[in-house]
Write a structure and sequence with these properties.
Mean pLDDT of chain A: 94
Shape of chain A: globular
Strand content of chain B: 15-25%
Number of helices of chain B: 11
CATH superfamily of chain B: Aldehyde Dehydrogenase, Chain A, domain 1
Largest interface: A-B, 9 and 10 residues
Radius of gyration of chain B: 24 Å
Distance between the termini of chain B: 88 Å
Number of strands of chain B: 10
Oligomer: heterodimer
Low-confidence stretches of chain A: 1-7
Shape of chain B: elongated
CATH topology of chain B: Aldehyde Dehydrogenase, Chain A, domain 1
Largest sheet of chain B: 5 strands, parallel
Strand order of the largest sheet of chain A: 7-6-5-4-3-2-1-8
Number of domains of chain B: 1
CATH superfamily of chain A: Aldolase class I
Number of domains of chain A: 1
CATH class of chain B: Alpha Beta
CATH topology of chain A: TIM Barrel
Number of helices of chain A: 12
Helix content of chain B: 40-55%
Largest sheet of chain A: 8 strands, parallel
CATH class of chain A: Alpha Beta
Radius of gyration of chain A: 19 Å
Mean pLDDT of chain B: 91
Structural class of chain A: alpha/beta
Strand order of the largest sheet of chain B: 7-6-5-8-9
CATH architecture of chain B: 3-Layer(aba) Sandwich
Amino acid sequence: MPTSASAPASAFVDATASDSALRRFLHGLPGVDAVGLEARAAALGTRSIKTTAKAYAIDLAISMIDLTTLEGADTPGKVRALCAKGAHPDPTDRTTPRVAAICVYPDMAATAKEALAGTGIKVASVATAFPAGRAALPVKLADVRDAVEAGADEIDMVIDRGAFLAGHYLKVYEEIVAVKAECGDRARLKVIFETGELSTYDNIRRASWLGMLAGADFIKTSTGKVAVNATPPNTLLMLEAVRDYRAQTGIQIGVKPAGGIRSTKDAIKFLVLVNETVGADWLDNHWFRFGASSLLNDLLMQRQKLSTGRYSGPDYVTVD
Amino acid sequence: MSESTDVKQSDAKQSDAKQSDARRLSVFKTYKLYVGGKFPRSESGRVYEVQDSKGTWLANAPLSSRKDARDAVVAARKAFGPWSGATAYNRGQILYRIAEMLEGRRDQFVRDVADAEGLSKSRAAAVVDAAVDRWVWYAGWTDKIAQIAGGGNPVAGPYFNLSTPEPTGVVAVVAPQDSSFLGLVSVLAPVIATGNTTVVVASEKSPLPALTLGEVLATSDLPGGVVNILTGRAAEIAPSLAAHQDVNAIDLTGAGAGTDLARDLEIAAADNLKRVLRPSSATDWTAPQGTERLTAFLETKTVWHPTGSLGASGSAY
């Protein structure tokens, strides 16, 4: 059984020894065939998933959602309402699975933890000066500490894209290592690359490896705060990275596409990508998540359609 | 130039025209649905043959599936906010504009209606004129219906009590089967005049006037999605519209009075308390229509507001 990430795997100790060694390693990764990647993602998006397979996919997708609210206007009441929704997504049908986690800002983590007590739903908290990540390391670490102490089970950190794009890979690496140390055994670490700001597929592959070497438990596409968020090609590329990493080290790492996934159809396309790229080992909310808010409503409407035979409408799900 | 050469020249021109007619390949039209302001093919890819009253093949029309109905409802729901929120005056202007465009396409509609219903050119022209006039008539009602369907109510207390009519929402319309154009206009115009958005299931036998109407609507300032036109079998499409939880009302005119289809649709519509307009037998579409169809898809909102003085100062609201 694959284990969770702890320290950089022994095979790659040399790669992270110095800035130049890390650069050599990351730039030595094979280049991405952009046309092939997009064609593959598009081809997998045409699979027809119907009837019982669709019902399974919808329930699986619901159970993989990190139900998210990351607004300046978040109030304790809103967070509690979201937690209640996560625990019973469809109050008219108690067979609906619960979501995987509720994702909030650190100051709301305690509220969410309290509201979710006894449900088994995790509290995920963004940290490290989310979403820009523009703060000094001690500030970022304090942010993480606050979130963990407030009861967060999972920390979603952002990498320093400025440093990454400037080629200071070791700085990014050390930051992730420090945050990982701060999380300790108490929280799983998701590392957000903000793929929309990394410009190239090659950079996304490098960031994926960098994150995995530094001890990420999850690699995550985006914050949801920029124009381009999770796309099927980006996610496919990251899935290939975790597949290759496990093949070489035996360590399994999770993937979380976030932002811009709004319809059941999109979610099912991502599940097909997972199944076809890394296989059934990842078809579980311990290893794959959707960062989403409006997606849940669409999944619920599709679920209602499947169970009643009638098309549902937005009047029959909550307004978040 | 002498008279005889003139005649010869015009002969030559005529034979030229004949030759080019013979050589020209006919351009067949692909009729498509009108959904969300666009002209998609049916999601199912199916079409069916449309014949004129004598059984001659006219064209292929899309044979819609229930997924087309679902997509149309999504488009109609999206359009409902802006359309119901537009001022009544603005809606009226847009409906007038549609009437103007209908007038400009009069010849095409006369041909369509003559083919579809087996009428002579002059009878068909009368039907089209009546339809345009009816559209204008309903356009005039947009900013007047509130005065007759709402108003101040006398109540036994110190309150203003005001009722205003509001559109019901997304209305599914099963259009009349026999009167493919005048009947269609008579059921469609009143629904959108009051601010509802619609999904129309056109006459199964003669869908072409409805599809041509879609082309007119697309070029008349009417926001996409306010009217969505589906063609195909009413018995296939209408049940999913009747059961759809996001459709607020259904007009069963085209299902026919006393038919099994009308009964089944009414039962399916009961699940989410849809407002249902039941079909009446043998409506004469050429007769003037009342306001009944306008008020059928309106909800009344009543507001109570206290009146009288505010304390000792004597000032009032």
